[in-house]
Amino acid sequence: MVIPIWYHYCVAFTVRTDPTLEAALTALAESESISRQEVIRRAVMERFERAGHRAAVSDSASRMIDRWGDVLDRLGSE
After folding, report:
1. Which of 17, 31, 49, 71 would staple 21 via disulfide (CB 3.0–4.6 Å)?
2. DSSP states of 21-63
3. How far is CA 11 from CA 16, 54, 69, in A?
4. Average pLDDT over residues 3-12
5. What is the CA radius of gyration of the chain?
6. What is the pLDDT, as a whole number, of residue 32?
7. 40 CB-contact burial (10 Å; exposed 0-12 / middle 13-18 / buried 19+)
8. What is the end-to-end Cα distance of the chain in Å, rounded?
């Protein structure tokens, strides 16, 4: 069986929802004039981007503390 190349980039899957999520999903889709699928896609991508940003900020803070921790401690004790 030969699988078309597009299949690897656009795969369907089922999302099971409850009535509360159904109502929220429908309301968002209607208010933004987009599909329910697009609401889900945007929510997942936003969460993914926030997680990456949070990790980058945490890494940066750790590097700054390693480099400037002693100075910050001295400033805080004055």
Report:
1. 17
2. HHHHHHHHHHHHTS-HHHHHHHHHHHHHHHHHHHHHHHHHHHH
3. 16, 28, 48
4. 72
5. 22
6. 95
7. middle
8. 73
pLDDT of residue 4: 75
CA distances, 2 to each of 5, 9, 44 (Å): 9, 15, 30
Total domains in the chain come to 1
Percent of the chain scored above 90 by pLDDT? 40
Spatial CB neighbours of 40, under 8 Å, sequence gap ≥ 6: 15, 25
Domain that holds residue 50: 5-77
Nearest to 37, CA basis, from 6, 14, 7, 9: 14
Name the pLDDT band for 43 (thresholds 50, 70, 90). very high
Whole-number pLDDT of residue 64 = 83
C-alpha span between 26 and 72 (Å, rounded): 50
